[in-house]
Specification:
The chain is an all-alpha fold and 352 residues long. It is built from 13 helices and 2 strands. The chain has one domain. A hairpin with a 2-residue loop joins β1 and β2. α4 packs across α12 and α9 crosses α10. The N and C termini lie far apart (134 Å).
């Protein structure tokens, strides 16, 4: 066989028939891997571009905690003073319940009083008063004695009113003492010597500030007469020790005096101690019923006395409540002034 040698212009063709300019084919599995990778890369790239173009509506991280504004000294004082005022209102309602209880117990004796008022002893004294040159007061004195025996004595009514007022003032004193201790703890982070005082110093300086607030009042105070309050402690003022119970006692005396003067206008000349109540009106009403004592009207008289007692209870309760409410209003003003004075830093107070 003759072998033909290719010339320079002829290309060599492989014997297997393959084209030398064509790349070898990729395996099918590698093709799908590359295709999937490319698609995922494109999707991720598009999502990233959109996220940069439009900010997400959802927060990327948890919101920062907002720091609460620190209450000012005035706000803390107002908070504790308002709480004290609320407790004082509750104390007033609680102590005022003593007066209705007193009259409720007193009305239990109305039937017995009616028996005496319409009995023979009452009628005999009434007839004796009609005689010329007679005493003319035997019947009235008899009814007053039986009223005190069966219902209540004037001094008993005075006592319950006095106890109501003093018990309320005592509660106010305790409420303010607790207020001072809580306020002292609450303002410990403020630059004021208030937080450094012990309990005795705290009470002493608060009492002094109360009197100073009364002295600085532009108009005369009804219950906080600074001259009288300072005089209560007497020589103790010189030692800068003022007793709060003595001041409370002085205020109670002023309230009782004012209350007695106010209620005396409705009384009928039957006085007992510093306070005069309208018991004489009830006795006078009973006398009107005795004129026809021959009839059995005990039930009607007892009901009439009970009605008169209800009126007297209402009058006294309204008068006592009005006085104590006025006291509470005045006390709130001087308490606020005293607290502001105590918590205002001064060079003299900083040295103490």
């Amino acid at each position: 066989m003759t072998h033909v040698t290719p010339t320079s212009g002829q290309s060599k063709v492989p014997q297997n028939g393959a084209n030398p300019q064509t790349a070898p084919a990729l395996p099918s599995w590698l093709y799908w891997v590359l295709l999937t990778t490319g698609v995922l890369t494109g999707v991720l790239l598009v999502s990233w571009v959109r996220g940069q173009a439009a900010p997400s509506s959802e927060p990327l991280s948890a919101p920062e905690k907002t720091t609460q504004k620190r209450p000012s000294l005035e706000e803390r004082i107002r908070k504790h003073e308002e709480e004290a005022q609320r407790l004082c209102r509750e104390a007033l309602d609680r102590q005022m319940q003593a007066i209705p209880r007193f009259f409720g117990d007193a009305k239990q004796g109305c039937p017995e009083f009616a028996d005496y008022a319409l009995g023979w002893g009452s009628t005999r004294r009434w007839l004796q008063d009609l005689l010329p040159f007679g005493d003319c007061e035997k019947h009235k004195r008899f009814l007053e004695e039986k009223f005190a025996e069966c219902i209540f004595a004037p001094e008993s009514l005075e006592k319950v009113v006095e106890q109501t007022i003093k018990a309320y003032l005592k509660e106010v004193e305790q409420i303010e003492n607790n207020m001072l201790l809580k306020l002292q703890e609450d303002v410990a982070d403020f630059p004021t010597p208030f937080a450094k005082w012990d309990r005795e110093q705290l009470q002493k300086k608060y009492t002094e500030s109360l009197i100073a607030a009364c002295q600085q009042a532009k108009k005369k105070l009804l219950y906080h007469d600074s001259t009288k309050l300072a005089a209560v402690a007497g020589d103790l003022v010189a030692t800068r020790i003022i007793s709060p119970p003595k001041i409370t006692e002085a205020i109670a005396t002023q309230i009782l005096t004012r209350l007695g003067l106010r209620l005396s206008t409705s009384a009928a000349g039957m006085a007992s101690g510093a306070v005069t109540f309208g018991i004489g009106l009830i006795v006078g009403a009973a006398i009107d019923w005795i004129i026809e004592s021959i009839l059995d009207r005990k039930g009607e008289l007892a009901k009439q006395v009970e009605a008169n007692l209800d009126e007297l209870e209402k009058e006294i309760s309204q008068a006592v409540r009005a006085e104590l409410q006025q006291f509470a209003k005045e006390r709130k003003a001087v308490r606020q002034a005293a607290l502001q004075s105590l918590l205002t830093p001064t060079p003299q107070r900083d040295q103490e």
